[in-house]
Amino acid sequence: MGNSYAGQLKTTRFEEVLHNSIEASLRSNSLVPRPVFSQLYLEAEQQLSALEGGSRADNEDEEEEGEGALEPTCPPNPYQMHPPPEGCCTTDGFCQAGKDLRLVSISSEPIDVPAGFLLVGAKSPSLPDHLLVCAVDRRFLPDDNGHNALLGFSGNCVGCGKKGFCYFTEFSNHINLKLTTQPKKQKHLKYYLVRNAQGALTKGPLICWKGSEFRSRQTAASTGSSSVFPPAESSGPLATFSGEPIPGTTPSIPMGAQQAGAASEHPSLTAAVGPAVLNGKDSPKHQQLVKNDPSAMPRPSALGILSNSGPPKKRHKGWSPESPSTTDGGYSQGGGNRAKHESAGMSCMPQVGLVGPAPVTFPVVASGEPVSVPDNLLKICKAKPVIFKGHGNFPYLCGNLNDVVVSPLLYTCYQNSQSISRAYEQYGASTIQPISEEMQLLLTVYYLVQLAADQVPLMEDLEQIFLRSWRESHLTEIRQYQQPQPCPPAPSAVAPVTSAQLPWLAGLAASSCNDSVHIIECTYSLAEGLSEMFRLLVEGKLAKTNYVVIVRACRSPAIDSCVAVTGKYQARILSESLLTPAEYQKEVNYELVTGKVDSLGAFFSTLCPEGDIDILLDKFHQENQGHIPSSLTASSVTKSASLDVGGAPACTSYNLEPHHIRPFQLAVAQKLLSHVCSIADSSTQNLDLGSFEKVDFLICIPPSEVTYQQTLFHVWHSGVLLELGLEKEHMTKQRVEQYVLKLDAEAQTKFKSFLQNSFQNPHTLFVLIHDHAHWDLVSSAVHNLYSQSDPAVGLVDRLLNCREVKEAPNIVTLHVTSFPYALQTQHTLISPYNEIHWPASYSHGVDLYPENKKYFGLSEFIESTLSGHSLPLLRYDSSFEAMVTALGKRFPRLHSAVIRTFVLVQHYAAAMMAVSGLSQMKDYTSVETLEITQNLINSPKQCPCGHGLMVLLRVPCSPLAAVAYERLAHVRARLALEEHFEIILGNPSSGITIGKHFVKQLKTWQKIEDAEWRPQTYLELEGLPCILIFSGMDPHGESLPRSLRYCDLRLINSSCLVRTALEQELGLAAYFVSNEVPLEKGARNEPLESDAEKLSSTDNEDEELVTEGSISEKRSPVKRERSRSHDSASSSLSSKASSSAPCGESSAQPAAPSQGERARSPQSCGPSEETRAPGDRQRPHASRGPPPVISRRSPGPTPQPDSGLRTGQRSVQASVTVSSSQLSSSGSSSSSMTPAAGTLVLQASQCSMSKACRQPPIVFLPKLVYDMVTATDSSGLPKAASLLPSHSVMWASSFRPLLSKTMTSTEQSLYYRQWTVPRPSHMDYGNRAEGRVDSFHPRRLLLSGPPQIGKTGAYLQFLSILSRMLIRLTEVDVYDEEEININLREESDWHYLQLSDPWPDLELFKKLPFDYIIHDPKYEDASLICSHLQSIKSEDRGMSRKPEELYVRRQTARMRLSKYAAYNTYHHCEQCHQYMGFHPRYQLYESTLHAFAFSYSMLGEEIQLHFIIPKSKEHHFVFSQPGGQLESMRLPLVTDKSHEYIKSPTFTPTTGRHEHGLFNLYHAMDGASHLHVLVVKEYEMAIYKKYWPNHIMLVLPSIFNSAGVGAAHFLIKELSYHNLELERNRQEELGIKPQDIWPFIVISDDSCVMWNVVDVDCGGERSRELSWSERNVSLKYIMQHIEASPNITHYALIGMRKWSSKTGSSEVREPFSRCHVHDFLILNVDLTQNVQYNQNRFMCDDVDFNLRVHSAGLLLCRFNRFSVMKKQIAVGGHRSFHITSKVSDNAAAVVPAQYICAPDSKHTFLAAPAQLLLEKFFQHHSHRFFPLSLKNHSHPVLSVDCYLNLGSQISVCYVSSRPHSLNISCSDFMFSGLLLYLCDSFVGASFLKKFHFLKGATLCVICQDRNSLRQTVVRLELEDEWQFRLRDEFQTANAKEDRPLFFLTGRHI
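Above: the chain's sequence. Below: its structure in C-alpha cell form.
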C-alpha cells in the first residue's frame, strides 16, 4: 500500500495549546509517547503503553533544562576552523574516518542507535542537497516548543561508529561540516530522521529549536525493532499531510507504517484523538490495537506515532503504562471496561444548535434524487439513526421520516470554525485562512475513531480540535504579525489535504477501529451514500458501526459530507438530546398516555421468580395481615411507634437551629451595601441615597409553592419587616405575603401594585429581589408568539425589565442566583462592577470568616471522588445502567427517561420487598438501591424518638413522578410499611401532603401545639423517614432538611447537559457540615456503623479504630479499591445473586445500606447502630449460619442475608451490619472480627440526626453525568464547567480559550461576558450595545453564590443594613452637652426681663452687665474668667481630662436631618444640583482666579489673597471690566427690606474637611440667594475646588499654611473691613451714604448642621413656669429675623445658643444675654474695626476676641431663643494638627511636657508652630509656671490683653491695657500670677503697678525672641518687684528657623 498511492504526505505545523502559561505549569514527566491527536486536540489524558519494539526502554531522562536564550538571528561570529588531523578524510558527506554519512547512501542500511539516542539529519553548507545522518542523545534536543533541551551535546558517528563526542564543535569537525561560523547544534541539526513503511530512513520533521522561524513538524516512524521516536517530552506537534511526493524518496508514507508483526501497541492514529470527555482515568483499552497477525498488511498510519507535542499530564494513579493490553483490536472487549472510565460526551449537543426545535426532518438544499428512508428502520436498528449535516448539499429524504433524526449541529460547528475570530483579524486575516473543509472532515473522523463504545460525540470537543489545529497551522503567521522586526516568512512548503486524498485518508484513519467508524465515498451526491448506508443498516452489516461518515469528494473544489450516528447507545442519546425540554415532556407524556409503556410493565412482571411481582406482594400482604412483617422486629417497631406518639424519651440530636446570621452572610450583605453605595457615589447620579428615608422590597421567586413558603418563612423569621419599619410587632402571615411574589399567572396584579407603590413613595428605596434569577430568561417577545401556551413564559422579562422598573430612580434590582452564567453574556444588563460573588472561605491559607459549619458543595463532592479520601459522595450505579442499556435496545421506541424511571422504581420496589423479608427479590435490585432502602427503613429504629432519614428521588418529568409515586406507595402499602416511612410527591405547583401519623410525629418533635399545622417546606420534614419524589424540570431553590441522606439523581435528564442544569441538580445535595468534627478524622466516640468494614483489610486493623466513618476517612481500607471506579457494582455485576451482607462495599461503595453507609451518612441509621456488648457482635453469625460464607462471598457486593432478615431476634440490628461490609474484604475471615469489635466504645442508641450535621448526603448520578462531573481537563477544571453555561445562550465563537481552574468567579464572569451571546429567545438579546457602559442598567446588581449557602439570609441582612444606613444617612450626631458653669451665673438684676421681645431693646440691653464666664461646654477644660470676687469652690470645676479623651467623651445625640439642614459633599438631590455646580449651563470647574491685595499696617506688609470665583457667582462681585480686575464684593444696604436674599456674606474657615464640611447651605437657606465663601489654606485649594466646584473660595496666603483658625478669622475680618471701605467708596459715587452699607458678615463653623427656634408662651404672670417648645427652622429664617433687628448696627457681635437636649426653661426664659458667643457669629466689621482676632491663635481665639470686643465697650448679644446644632465630624478641624518630632521618623506621640525646653539645650525639636506648642503646654502644664494659682480661684492669674487657656484648675482675670477700655475692678483681687503675652506698647510699668500680687506669685513673660524678652523686662521695670534667675528662661521646642517663643519666669518679691 506504501507505493500505491500518489498522494504524498508532508507535515504542517500545529501549535500546542491555547495558553503558554498553562504549558509551562503542566510540564510533567511521562515516558510514554502519546497519540498525536488526543494530545494535540483533546488534551486526552491517555498515554500509550510503551512500545514493545524496545526503542523506548531507556528514556529515563525526563526533566530537561530549558535552553538558554538561543537567538538564531544573532550575527555570525567569525570562526577559525581547526585544521583536520593529518591523513584523515576531508570529503564532504564523509566522516574523517572516510565512512559515508549521506542519507541517500545509507538510508536502507541498518544503523545501531543506542538507547536514548535519535537519528537526526545535519545540513552541511557545502552539500545543500544532502542530509548527513548523526546519532544524538535526545536529551540535548528540544521539545516542540523549543524548550527543555539540555545545553551541550552528546553524539555518535553512525559511519565509523565512534562514540562520545561531547562538543558539537568536535563532532562537526569529525563529520566534515567545514563551517565558517561557530558550530551550533541549533543551526546545523535540522531534521529528525524517520523510517518509512519500507523501513528506509527518510527526512522527518524539523527539529524545533527555540526561536526558529520554522516550527517543527514532526512525524515519526514506527519500525518493529528500533523505531526512531522523537522523545516524549521533546517531540513536535502533529503532522498533517500534503499532497506532493517528496523528491528523492520512494513515495511511501513518511508518517510511519507499522511493520508486519510489529508491536501490537502501535497507537494507530485512530487512537490518537483521545477520549472526548476525560474523567481522569485511563484504560489501556483506549488503544484500539491492531490484530497481531503476521500476514497483516502494514497499516500506514496517516500520522504515525507522534509523541507528546506538549506538556504531558500526570498519569493517573489507577493505570500504569505497562499494563498489559489485549492484542485483540477493536472495541468489542474494551467496551465494558471503558464504560467505567470514559465520560460520555453527548451531553453538549444541544448547545451548539440553532434556536428553536432542533430536529430537522427536511433538507436544506435539494441535490438530485430524494433518498427514501426504509420502513422498518427503527425495528431493525433498535435506535433512530441521527444524521448530522456536514459540508455542502444535503439531499431530500422521503419515506419513513419518523425513524431518522436530521440535525444541523455539525454544520453549525463547521461554520463556526470557518469564521476567524476577531481576535486574529488584527494580524491580517486575509493571509490567515480558516481551517479547510477537508481538514475539518478528517479531524472529525479522527475524533470519532477514538471515541469509546460508551462515549457520545461532543460538539464542543470537536470545536476545540478545530481551534487547536487552526491555531497550530497559523501560529507562525500570527507570530510574524506580532513581531515588530521584519523577519522573512517561512518557506511554506505545506500543501493542504486535497479533496482527492480525503476519502483515502479518512479510510486510512478509520481502518484501525474495527469498523466502529465506516466511511462511504460517493461519486455524485450524498444521496447515493445515504442510500447505501440505509441498505447496510437494513442488512445488519453495520451492527458494530457507531458512526458512518459519508463523503463526496470529487475533483470539484467543494466537498459534501454528512455523519450518521448509527450506534444504538449514541443514536438514542443524541436524538433525545436534540429535544427541547418541552418536547421531551411532550414525548414522555405521549408514551404514558398512549399506553406505550405497558409493554415495559409487562416485561418487568415476568422477571419475578414467582411470576408477577404484584402476585407476590398480594401473597405477602395476606400472609402478614394483622401482624407486623417478620423482618421488622416486633420490639423495635412497637418501640418506635409508641415513642413517636407518647412521652418520648428526648432525642438529643434533634434540634432545629435558631436563625442567626453567619459571618459569611454578614460579609456578603456588607459587600452588597458597598456596591449600592458606590452606585450612589458615582458621578452619574443614578441613585440618590440621601433622598430616601426608608427601604421597601419585593422578592420574586419561581412558581414553586415550597420555595414560596420557604421564602415567607425566612422573611418572617429574619425580623427584616420590623427592622425596616414596614410592619408592626404582631404581623400576620397575610402581611408577610405582600413582600414575596410567586411568578405565576397572578403575579402581574401584585407587581403592578408594587410599581404603583414605588411611584407614590419617591422617598422610599424599593429593592426588587429576583431570586433564582437564572430561571425563565425568555424574552417577552417570545412570549407574545406563544402566549396561548403558557402565560408564565417570559414573565420575568415582562415584569422585571419593564420600562417602569428600568426608569424608576427609586428601584434597585438585585438578581440572586447560584448559576449566573446566563446573565453574564455580551448583552447583559448588569455591569461587571455590580456583580457580587460569594467570597471564598480561605484566602492564602487564612480562614477569612471562621464559622462552625463547613459548606459542602459541588467541588467538595467532586473532591470526595479523588484518591486519598474515603468513600466518595458522588457515585453511579453500574448495574442500573447496564439494565437500562439492555432495555433501551429491547424497547427502541420508548424514551430513555421512561425506561430509566421504570427500572429505578422496580429496583426500589424490589429493595423494599427484600428488606421486608422477601429475600429472593434482592437479585432484582441494585446494591445501591438496596443500601438506600435498608437505611431508610431501619433508621427510625436507631433513635428513641424514631427520627429517620430522607431519600430524595429526583424525577424531573412530572407524569413519570406521578407514576413512580403511585407504584412505590402501592408497594409500601402491600408491605405494611405505611407507618415506617412516608412517600411524598413534591411538585412545584402544589404544596406538601403527608399522612396524619407523620404530621403528628413532626408536631411532637418540633413541639408544635397548633392543631391546624401542616409542614409547608421541606425543611420542616427534618427527621422524618421519607422518600421525597422531587419533580419539575428544574429545581426552584427548594432547601432540603439536614436529615437528607441520599440524593438519588439517577433519573436526571442526562442527555441535555449544560453547566447550569447540571450544577442545579447537584446543588440539591449541597449541605452544611458541622466543623467541630474534623472532616478527615471522623468522630471517635461513636460505634462503628459496620464492624466488618473495619475488618475487611487485615493489614490496617490496628489503626482502623476510626469509628463511624467520617466524611473522608483517610485510613479507610476502601482507598485501595479506589482506582477501580466509583461504581459499587463494578467489581462483579453478577454479585447481586450473592447472599450475606446488605451491601458490600465493592470498590468504593459505602458498605451496607443497613449500616447506613459507613462513611458518610449522618443518617445512616443502619440497625448496626444499636448498642451491643462485644459478645453481641458474634450473635449474628450464629443467626446466620457459618461465618466463612461471608468472607468467601467477599468479592462482590453482597445483599442482605435472608436468614438475618427473617429471624425475629433483636440481632437484626447487628446482623445486617456485621456482614454488611465485606468490602472486597481482602480475605479477612470472620474470626478476625471478634477481637476488633471489642475496641469500640459502647454508647447509647444512635439517632441518625446526630450524624446528619457532620456528613453530607450521598449522591447517585447517571454514569454519563458522573463521568462528566468527575472528569477534569488539563488545568484540573471539572469538564462540566467548560460546558455551555446555559440553554439560553450560545458561544460567541469557537475561537475561545478554555476556562481555567484558577479563574475566580469574577474572571469566569468576564470570560462568559466575552465568549457567550444570548439566543434570540433570551431576554437580553435585544440589549445590543455590546460592552458599552451605557448598555448596563445602573441600578441592577447580581449576587451569585453556591446553592444552599445562605444567599436568602444574606440579602435579607442586606436589606436591614441598607435600611440602617439610610436612616443613618438622614441622621447626624450632634453635640448635646449642658451649658457649663451655670451655677456661677450672676444675680437676677443682670437679666433681660422683657421676656416676649422679639429683638433686644438697645437701651435695656446696654444696661445689662457682661457675663465673663464661659458657658460653652466645649470649653469645659478652659480656665475660668473671673469678673468679680467669686467664691468658687474647687469642686465646682470638673477635673481636667486627658487631651485624647476630649473628643471621645463629648456627648452627642443622634438627630434626624430636617429639611433645613446643611449638608456635606455626599448629599445629592435634584434641588441642589445647580447649587452644587452640576448644571448644564455651567461647565464643571469653570471658575476664575482673582488676586485681591490690601495693606495692613500691623503686619507691616501688603496681604495678597486669592479668590476663586465660579462663573455662576460672579454677580456677587464688582470687576473693573468683565473678566478684568476684581475690585470688591458687593454689599447690600441696611435699608433693604427684601426677603429674597440674605444680606450678610457667610465665611466658613475650614481645613481637612473637603468631603465632610457642611458647606451645602442650599436647604438651610431654604433656597434663598446668599453669598457663601469658603476660606481655605493654599495647599488644600485644589481638593476643595474639586469637591465644591460651585463655591467661592478665599485662599489664604501660603505663609498661613500652618496657621490656626485665628489667622483665618483675622484675615476674614480684615478683608471684610477693607471691602466695606471699598464698597462705601464705590456706592458713595452712586449717592449712597457710607453708614447705609451693610456692615455685617457671618463667620460660621464648618460643622453647623441645623438651626432651631424656641417658641415661648410667657403666659400672664412672670413668676409662673413658662411653657416653651423648640422647632427646627431654616437659617434663612434666623438670619432674616436677626438682620431685621432695630438698631442692629449698634451691636458688634451677635450669636446664638448652642443646642442641647438638656436645655431648661431658665436658659430660654430671657430672650437675650450679653455674654460670650461662639460657633456662628454675626460680626459688625465696622464697629470692630480696631479690635482684631489674634492671628497666631489655635484655640480659644473666639473667647479672646469676645473679651477684646467687650473691653472695647462694644455690645455682644446672644439670642437665647435661637440655637445652632453642631455635627460631630471626626476628621479635620483643629485635630488635623499633629505634633511630632522634627528629627526622627518615630511616630510616637510627644507629650505636652516636652513642648518647651531650656534655650540652647540639646532637646529634640518638634515640627509644629511655636504658638501651638505654647497653647498646648499651658493647657496641660501651666501649674509649673503658676504653682500658687492651682485650684486657687480667689487668687486668679492676671492675664493682660489676652486670654490663654491655663487649664481648668487655674482661674484668670482678663484686663485690657487699652486706654478707655472696660475692665473689671481689680482693687479687691490679690493675684497669684501675672501673664504677659507678646505685650505691646500700651502695657507700661505704671499700668502694672495698679495690681496687687501675693507673695511668691509667679510671673511669665512671653516674647518673640530673647532680645525682646530682656527689653520688656527693662521697659516694664519688672525687676523692681519680681525676682528672675537665669535658669527660669525657657523656649518652645522649635528649631531656630521655626521662630520659637521665649519665656521668662520670675517670683514676686
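The radius of gyration is 47 Å.
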